[in-house]
Amino acid sequence: MEIPKTYDPKITEDKWYAHWLKNKFFKSIPDERKPYTIVIPPPNVTGVLHMGHMLNNTIQDVLVRMKRMQGYNACWVPGTDHASIATEAKVVALLKEKGINKTDLSREDFLKHAWEWKEKYGGIILKQLEKLGASCDWDRTRFTMEDDLSAAVIDVFIDLHNKGQIYRGVRMVNWDPEGLTAVSDEEVIHKEVNSKLFYVKYKIDGTADEWITIATTRPETILGDTAICVHPDDERYKHLKDKRVIIPMVNRSVPIIFDTYIDLEFGTGALKVTPAHDINDYNLGVKHNLEVIDTIAANGKMSEAAQFYIGEDRFTVRKKIVKDLEDMGQIVKVEDIKNKVGYSERTNAVIEPRLSMQWFLKMDTISKPALENVLNGEIKLIPEKFVNTYKHWMENVHDWCISRQLWWGQQIPAWYDNKSNTVVCRTKEEAFEKLKLKNSVIKIEDIKQDEDVLDTWFSSWLWPISVFDGFKNPKGKDINYYYPTNDLVTGPDILFFWIARMIIAGYEYRGVKPFSNVYLTGIVRDKQGRKMSKQLGNSPDPIELIEKYGADGVRVGMLLCAPAGNDLLFDESTCEQGRNFSNKIWNAFRLINGWETDVNAKQLDANKIAIQWFDTKFNEQLESINDLYSKYRMSEALMASYKLVWDDFCAWYLEMIKPEFVDGKSLPIDKETYDATIVFFEKILKVLHPFMPFITEELWHLIKERNEKDCIIVAEWPKIKIENKVILNHFEAVMEVVSNIRNIRKQKNISPKEKLQLFEKVNQGDVIKTYDSIIIKLCNLSSFDYVHQKVNGAISFVLKHAEFYVPLSQNIDLEAELERLTKDLNYNKGFLKSVQSKLANEKFVSNAKPEMVENERKKLADAESKIKAIEEQLAGLK
RNA sequence: GGGAGCUUAGCUCAGCUGGUUCAGAGCAUCUGCCUUACAAGCAGAGGGUCACUGGUUCGAACCCAGUAGUUCCCA
User: Fold this and answer.
1) Exposure string (b/e) for A827-842, b if CB count within 10 Å is 16 or more?
2) Exposed e or buried b for every residue in A284-301, given b needs 16+ CB within 10 A?
3) How far is the CA of A853 from the C1' of B19 (A)?
4) How far is the CA of A78 from the C1' of B46 (A)?
5) DSSP run (H or E) holding A731
6) Residue A174 pairs with which residues in a beta bridge?
7) Greatest Cα pair distance in chain A
8) d(Cα A46, Cα A158) in Å, to the nearest integer?
9) Which nucleotide is nearest to A742 (CA to C1')?
10) Scanning A195, A265, A507, A629, which has the fewest C-beta atoms within 10 Å of its C-beta?
């Protein structure tokens, strides 16, 4: 069979994915093995795969595959999130294209459209994950708005309400005028923008021409002012005690209040107070019992209460009112400043602080265990630096606004009668029974359910419990077996949104953590360091990348540039490197596959040694790879595997055992060496499998006849053998000889085909001839002999233990040799000097650890003998 | 405004308990090779004041203080 020179992912990926599915290798059911569990951070149901998903799902798959091979019952639960505000926004936009306004639809009709949309686009992202090779147990796929999960959300709401943890009240919330809903503090993104600071003068009430000047960035809110506030210690305004001022345009008289909240330095030291449209002003209003005039409606346009500009947008009004005030002569000056403005995470609209009736979850007590157990290490955040951020947030946590003025989501199970009685329960019938106790004449038709839905995170915070039916069936087999889960892999941007809240819910509802380790990936940025986003159009399409480089190539590329916890600057070239690596492995297979074996051939000494060496090397590297995995240093584990394969296996081992080529044909290889090589190849495929599932599965089946079930995905992870590592040290010396001779070839322009002679003069230690055959082969030598005297007319080099001579057919360049040896001599003399001065330092000798001093003495001796050898050679040349 | 982190080769990053001439890896670059598995390859080479300034120490990329730049979080 002709095997192509390059690896083609297209013919393997779909084939093996289907094969794995068919054989149910991803499927997990509780058994006697230890579980290893990951729940996927559920992507937005209508979303498409982006680079961030690529990164964290690759990491999850690597972990799951490795644990599966290590004998754990590995279970990776996939699913999607209903993402209320984002999805609703998309549905609204889609309807608008069709000429339908949301406001013209009933709740039921709208939800019908939304479900249609979900059915149509809901599966895309999960299908894309399959392309990546994700080994999720697809039979367990969940959706945060499916019946069981919604029921859990409602139960939790009712339970927390009964416990007194949920309350309803009028509070200042972050209002998204685009999405027409409240959003939580976490959903507001503060950005620094260039603004103008307007200095506006207000007339003191009862005076002819006495004024006070305030500074504001939001003049459109002037119409809602109900006070002016100054600092009690401010000399400039002491005389204004008990005075009132006139609000421009509306001509309302409002008090001047005094409060230490005021920053004397900012603006004029006088603040206009608009309790309806600023959180700080609101707090001042509460404290000083001020009137609240809500001048901006839910859609960001001026309300009736504003009296002017009614129905016009707040930003249009900002310009207009400035002009009008200018005409009235009340603008004193305008300054450019930078300030922070809050934007909605979902719609990017400027957030309007707004008073409204919302539901809140008290966070102070419920969050305690979640803080404690991260601080004491029961739950590990990786990298650790996030513990600080987490701690800070948890210690300053605010009550969580959980109601959203949307339809797509779980409707709040609160019921009202016509006399403002409220009950919280599952059904209207229950509500009727309960309300009857408060209002005996009530009719069931008079009962109305709260219009709002719950924040999406109020369902996803239950995810690790609800995907195992932990609410429906708290003593169930699944929840008992899989919970707490092991690792959670996600981005730090949702540390508070999601991770913290899952931990809270875990302790509240299971009394146990939801997961043991949280691996926080970096954020994927482009080469210029910008976050990849749709708006910027700087994100490559992951599916296109997979087509170009293969899923294995992209997985490797992704991880190569992903140091734990740091943002990663993604560059397509690392995917190319990944693809090249696939090809390297492919060709290693082609080489081995092309060998003929000879059962009668005697095993060469060189091969025997090579096998011993690689066996030891493999174990050493495996140990290190296992260790890196345990520390979640994924990119380093990958790099160690990469070097093990490329350098140790391909560049050294295969070169050492490669049969000689005679008359255009490779000689047969002895059976023993061949078999050992196959075993090694299987081992390295196993180590690579978590990173590169497709090519390793393909080669696993090409290297040996296997039955359908014998797949690498379920093969056993290699075990560590204890080996004598002395051979590794010996090999260091062998490699040094080899690289010196290659260097000579390069410098002297000698073809690798030309055979050379090599002589060794041993200076110290025993003569070890074990490796001679290897050196002969790797250096293409005609002979390798030991001598007692230096060889004249030869190029030489000096290693720690010996001197080497390579006679050349061409004349040696005396000048060049002198220069080279002198350079080497100087280097060693410098080294010697530094060691000598260290040893001459009495404080070093008396304070440093004895091993340290001993080591220095040894270095001294080595350097001295080496210098002696070089000097002799130099003398010989002259 | 408050807090946390980062700064090591052209790029992306390792460097653990201060100790080997400790300054490293991968990529990129340069040079030479279509050598018989792989040019998506092989062989070789160059490249850094470890941000800066002080301090502690026999010894500092590493510990401490300050400065600058930068990123993130919170308000």
Assistant:
1) ebeebbeebeebeeee
2) bbeebebebbbbbbbebb
3) 10
4) 50
5) helix A726-748
6) A183, A353
7) 121
8) 29
9) B43
10) A265
Q: How far is CA A311 from the centre of its chain?
A: 45
Residue nearest to nucleotide B41 (CA to C1'): A584
CA of A554 to C1' of B37 (A): 23
Identify the residue whose Cα has the smallest distance to the C1' of B71: A567
- In one-letter notation, the amino acid at residue A121 is Y
Nearest residue for B33, CA–C1': A751
H or E segment to which residue A340 belongs: strand A331-344
Q: Of A404, A402, A408, A376, nearest to A390 (Cα)? A: A376
Q: Which helix (H) or strand (E) segment is A79 a member of?
A: strand A79-80
**A841 Cβ within 7 A of any nucleic strand B atom:** yes
What is the overall mean pLDDT for chain A? 89
Which range (A354-358, A462-466, A735-739, A866-870) has the least confidence?
Answer: A866-870
- Nucleic strand B contacts from chain A, 175-204, CB < 7 Å: 185-186, 190
Return the exposure string of A369-403: e unless at least 16 CB atoms fall within 10 Å of the residue's CB, then b.
bbbebbeeeebbbbbeebbeebeebbeebebbbbb
Q: How far is the CA of A628 from the C1' of B47 (A)?
A: 29
How many angstroms is C1' of B26 away from CA of A777? 29
Among all protein residues, pick the one whose CA is nearest to the C1' atom of B27: A574
The pLDDT value given to residue A878: 66
Taking the CA of residue A603 and the C1' sugar atom of nucleotide B33, their distance in angstroms comes to: 32
Q: Which of residues 386-405 of A touch strand B (CB under 7 A)?
A: 388-389, 392-393, 396, 398
The residues of A between 507 and 536 with beta carbon within 7 Å of nucleic strand B are 529
Strand B close to A826 by CB, under 7 A: no
Name the residue type at position A455: D
SS3 assignment, position A225 = coil
pTM: 0.90
Q: Can you tell me the mean pLDDT for A773-787? A: 90
Q: How far apart are CA A243 and CA A234, in angstroms?
A: 15
Burial annotation A493-517 (CB, 10 A radius, 16+ → b, else e): ebbbbbbbbbbbbbbbbbeebbbee
Q: Is the CB of A340 under 7 A from strand B?
A: yes
pLDDT value, residue A811:
66
Q: What is the pLDDT of residues A672-697, one digit of tens each?
A: 999 999 999 999 999 999 999 999 99
The pLDDT confidence band at residue A810, using thresholds 50, 70 and 90, is low
Q: Which residues 558-587 in chain A have a CB closer than 7 A to strand B?
A: 560-561, 563-564, 566-569, 571, 573, 577, 579-580, 582-584, 587
Q: Straight-line distance from CA A484 to C1' B23, in Å?
A: 44
Return the pLDDT at A370. Answer: 93
Q: Please give the C-alpha separations between residue A6 and each of A2, A587, A681, in angstroms, as whole numbers.
A: 12, 7, 18
Between strands A403-404 and A244-247, the pairing is unpaired
Question: Tens digit of pLDDT for each residue in A624-639?
Answer: 999 999 988 888 899 9
Q: How far is the CA of A852 from the C1' of B17 (A)?
A: 15
Residue of least CA–C1' distance to B21: A831
Check whether the bond before A474 is cis (ω within 30° of 0). no
